[in-house]
Task: structure prediction
Amino acid sequence: MPDESCRNCGGKLHEYSKCSQCFKSNRMICDKCSTITPEQFHSICMSYQTNPTNTVPQIKPGNYSMVVTMA
Result:
């Protein structure tokens, strides 16, 4: 992270939380004023957090009247 000093008071920043995927710090906290920086997302880790969607099965030719009457 490029931030080394607090933008509020100039104090030193320390690790506050880590990314759940790569475990690098993504939020910092100031040792003087306890200001917490906004969460910074890692683009490579964001791709891991997306849930894949289920694909819709293709409709195959056939007689579906029985399925419709049962529903």
Notes: The chain is about 20% helix and 15% strand. The mean pLDDT is 75.
